Amino acid sequence: MYQSKIKGLGKYVPDNIVTNEDLSKIMETSDEWIVERTGIKERRHIDKKSDDTTAVMGKKAAMQAIERSGVDKDDIDLIVFATLSPDYYFPGCGVQIQDMLSIHTCPAIDVRNQCSGYVYALSIADQFIKTGMYKNILVIGSENHSGGLDMTTRGRSVSVIFGDGAGAAVVGRSENEGQGILSTHLHSQGEFAEELALIGPSTNHWVPEIIKENPQENIPYFPYMNGQLVFKNAVVRFSEVIMEGLQKNNLEVSDLDMLIPHQANLRIAQFIQKKFKLNDDQVYNNIQRYGNTTAASIPIALTEAWEEGKIKEGDHVVLAAFGSGFTWASAILKW
To answer: Which residues, other chains included, contact 333 with Cβ-Cβ below 8 Å and sequence gap of 6+?
Structure first.
């Protein structure tokens, strides 16, 4: 059995900054209302004049991760791409990345686990490395939320939260025993599937049919979220899956050097920080600047924390996520 480690990190966010004040001009909301509920001050949205898409942003983050890893792109054995907002209904973005990077017939897997998608994708990469099937795996999380949000007062409870961006990592074999990804932990609870969901368009309900049969205010091709229920479940599952990972590796909360939570809501992260009695240097949040970028949020935050020197060799790093499905997951790393 081999052990896997992250060899290179990368991120990309669009240049177009959308502030709370900007949103207040197109819907009934305010900076105070958004900050109080989410902690978000601004987010990035793709400029419609740019060439950015979910796959293109993923490529830009991936190129940075590959360069930093020291791995030749032609030595990438597998691509795992996590997103809820692919460029096409099918095929997924993984094959687009293979083509964009000109990696010859490299296999590609698409992961549709929304907010926990990146940790799920990382876990898949970890297993392929452990078994020896692949040596170098490109793991990408990328989201284009702005292309599918209801940017009116009707949709404000969801639309003010989300932003666009991408993060990536090259995962390879660890040269040092005990260094790298120590364990991953994955869960789901499908009874809550429709509490945070985009019901249509789908093979059961295509957009033209919706437009024909439903009044405008009931069109379900915008995301729906039962915010209170999601929050209540998130704070419980975050805590459980973090403790599960620590206990699996005989670690205490005091051994945790850096927690990178999925950037769903600053209030959730602050609740977890307080519960575990972590100081500000032990938790990394950037939702204030980027909003919730779903599958991209953890790799963007992880990349920034590393770039800022907040993660050092030998540190115990925990990645944790909760979201639509409901699904939740954690990964325990020794840097």
So the answer is: 5, 6, 180, 181, 182, 316, 317, 318, 319
327-334: strand order across its sheet: 180-188, 327-334, 316-323, 258-261
115 assigned to active site: yes
Token pair in block for residue 251:
């670690």
Cβ neighbours of residue 68 closer than 8 Å, sequence gap 6 or more = 7, 8, 9, 10, 170
For the chain, give every residue range classified as CATH 3.40.47.10. Answer: 4-173, 180-334
Interval 155-214: pLDDT, tens: 899 999 999 999 999 999 998 888 999 999 999 999 999 999 988 777 666 666 655 565
222 secondary structure, DSSP code: S
The encoded tokens of residue 254 equal: 């005091």
Q: Which of 45, 106, 113, 115 is catalytic?
A: 115
Residue 232's pLDDT is 93
Catalytic site residue from 262, 265, 286, 316? 262
Catalytic residue, from 93, 145, 292, 316: name it: 292
What percent of the chain is modeled with pLDDT above 70? 94
β-pair type (180-188, 165-173):
unpaired
Given this model, what pLDDT does residue 224 score?
85
**Tokens at 324, concatenated:** 């639509």
Instruction: Mark whether 185 is an active-site residue.
Output: no
Q: What is the pLDDT of residues 218-251, one digit of tens each?
A: 556 678 889 899 999 999 999 999 999 999 999 9
Q: What's the angle, vertex CA 267, arms to CA 313 and CA 121, rounded to 5?
A: 50
Decide if 292 is catalytic.
yes
Secondary element (H or E) of residue 98: helix 93-100
Judge contact between 6 and 333, C-beta under 8 A.
yes
**Domain 4-173 fold:** Peroxisomal Thiolase; Chain A, domain 1 (3.40.47)
CATH T-level fold of 180-334: Peroxisomal Thiolase; Chain A, domain 1 (3.40.47)
